[in-house]
Structure formats: C-alpha cells, structure tokens
Amino acid sequence: MLDTAPLLQPTSFPKIERSNLTTLQVNIGLKCNLQCQHCHVDAGPRRKEEMDLATVKQVLQVIKQEKISILDLTGGAPELNPHFKFLIREAKKLNCHIIDRCNLTVLFEEGQQDTAQFLADHEVEIVASLPCYLEENVDKQRGKGVFDKSIKALQILNELGYGKMDSHLILTLVFNPQGADLPPPQAALEEDYRKKLGAELGITFNRLLTITNMPIKRFGSMLLSKNSFDSYLNTLKTAYQASNLNKVMCRNLISVDWRGFIYDCDFNQMLEMPIENNQQKPLHLKDINNQPLKNMRIKVAEHCYGCTAGQGSSCGGSLD
Questions:
Q1: How far apart are CA 306 and CA 5, in angstroms?
Q2: pLDDT over 90 for what percent of the chain?
C-alpha cells in the first residue's frame, strides 16, 4: 500500500485548539469482515489488532473521570472485539450516549446473531455505512453481495424499532463518495435515500450523514496509484471554507486507538500523529489526568482540508 503521510506535510492549514471535551471516539480493533475501497483505516479480515480488556477498562475510567457524554465506537467492525458488549454495558451505567459505527453486514457474522437485539436493548445509536442506495455502486465499493446483506440488516433493525419516528432507537446512515469527489449536499441526498429506500424497500431511518473521503491509507493509496492524489488534494483545498473551522469534530473530541494512545481525530490516528505531552511523548489514556486537553493545539496536516471543504465533513456528517 502506498503511503500518503509524507505528502501531507508541511501544511498551510490554520492553527486550531481544542475546546471542551465531550466525545471519546474509540477504535477497538482493526479486524473487519469487509475490505472497502474508501476505507481510511485499512481495516479487513486479516487484521488482528484489537483492544484488550485492561485498555477497555481505562476507556471507562476516562469516561467517568472526564464526564464524557458521548462514546463513539469504531473499528474495523467494533462488534468483532470480544469486549464490545462489556464496554457498552458499563458505559451505559455512566450515562453515556453510545454510538456503534456498524457496517451492517457484520450482524450476519458467526457469533453476532444477538447483536442487533443487544444494541436495541441498550439504546445504542447505530451509525450504519451505506455508501449508496444503488446495489451496483455499493457492491463495487464494498464487495459483491454487500448491498443485499445491508438491506436485510436494515430491515431487521427497523423491526426492532430502529429508525421509526415514534422510537428512541436512532438509525443513522452514512454516505461516502465513490471516488475523488466531494459529497453532494447532505439534505438533498437524504431525501433521495428516503425515496429510494422507503418507496422500494420499506426502510426508514432517522438521518443521513455525508462524509468526505480522506486521502490517507487505502483511499489515499488508490489516489496515488491512479495519479490523482494531487488533483484531489487541490479539490479539497480549493473548496476550503473558513467558517467550518469552528465546527470541526476535533474541537470537542479525542480519538483512541486499540492500544489506548490518543489522537486529535480518527484521521490523525491513521497517520500516526498522536497527541503528545510536554516531553513530546505520545499520550495514553492513563496519562489524561496529568495533561489538560482543553486549549491544547490540535495537530494539523493537508488532510484537514477534507473536513473544511465545501459543506464541511466530520464523523457527524456535514457541518452546515
């Protein structure tokens, strides 16, 4: 895989600082049952990295200590970590709103038969990747048969109450562009999803998020192999909107890797750009109580233009 990290430094991206910390986004493992083209994590079936129980307990300690209100679980497929359910049970006791970033098809993997019901029982918000409402596009991006499995998973979630107007079970869908383009306007695309999925398949959901593809890891390598890395980066920089700076996710979030080291965002994690202490050593979860994070300078590079281009983008979708 071609490495884009050296091409993202130096940068002219503006300096920014963290505000109040509200969200802990935790990557609890890189193993995934899919291997998607747009994946900035380079997750897949052969990855073995996973968060152990001791680190999971450190996550819970930080939630309690820092009064974290949102726990955002990601991977890989986070459900494949053997401590996934333990973490959710314990985080619920700490009054966290929990998000599971689910690829949908994982619900049909061995040992996951009760996962959908478990998530409903614990009122976990499901943020589900469905990069298009057309079968051909989804299967091209994620693998043959993924669209059908995704639809079946959404139907199961709907039956449990997810995505219903009168339900407190939140089902959020996620769109990623097929290639080196910015996402279309989120509100208009959401209506297209509702018409296509609702009218033809009877599927309901609460909202759609559009997320810009980042020029790192697998997607970045693809751009380099097609000689389109520079043009895509220029697309991001040309569409830069200064007004998005106040709304980027890194102002209120830190990202945690499977070992417990912390980063300003998930993208910095994949670029191995950790938050550092005064001795320029990577910070770990166990060090947070000795290192105030508010007002700390956030590490930036050229990929940060992806979060501030056009309508803006974050793990919470458009910034508009």
A1: 14
A2: 76
Residue 98, token pair as written in the block: 């929990």
| Rounded Cα gap, residues 16 and 171, in angstroms | 32
Q: How far apart are the first and last CA of the chain?
A: 34
290 pLDDT higher than 80? no
Q: Phi-psi bin for 161: left (phi > 0), alpha (psi -120 to 50), beta?
A: left
Q: What is the 3-state secondary structure (H, E, C) of 59-85?
A: HHHHHHHHCCCEEEEECCCHHHCCCHH
Residues facing 70 on adjacent strands: 23, 97
Cα–Cα distance between 320 and 316 in angstroms, integer? 11
Cα–Cα distance for residue pair 205/185, rounded to 1 Å: 18
Q: What is the pLDDT of residue 144?
A: 84
**Could you tell me the pLDDT band of residue 126, with boundaries at 50, 70 and 90?**
very high
Task: Give me the pLDDT at residue 131, please.
Answer: 84
3-state SS class at 88: helix
How would DSSP label each residue in 128-184? Answer: EE---SSHHHHHHHH-TTHHHHHHHHHHHHHHTTTT-TT-S--EEEEE--SSSSPPP
Look at residue 26 and give its three-state secondary structure. Answer: strand
Kindly report, residue by residue over 192-248, the tens digit of the pLDDT.
Answer: 999 999 988 999 999 999 999 999 988 888 899 999 999 999 999 999 999 999 999
Q: Which uninterrupted H or E stretch holds 127?
A: strand 125-129
Does 36 score more than 90 pLDDT? no
**So what's the architecture of 5-308 in CATH?**
Alpha-Beta Barrel (3.20)
Which CA distances in Å does 48 have to 14, 33, 200? 36, 12, 39
Q: Identify whether the C-beta of residue 208 lies closer than 8 Å to the C-beta of residue 189.
A: yes
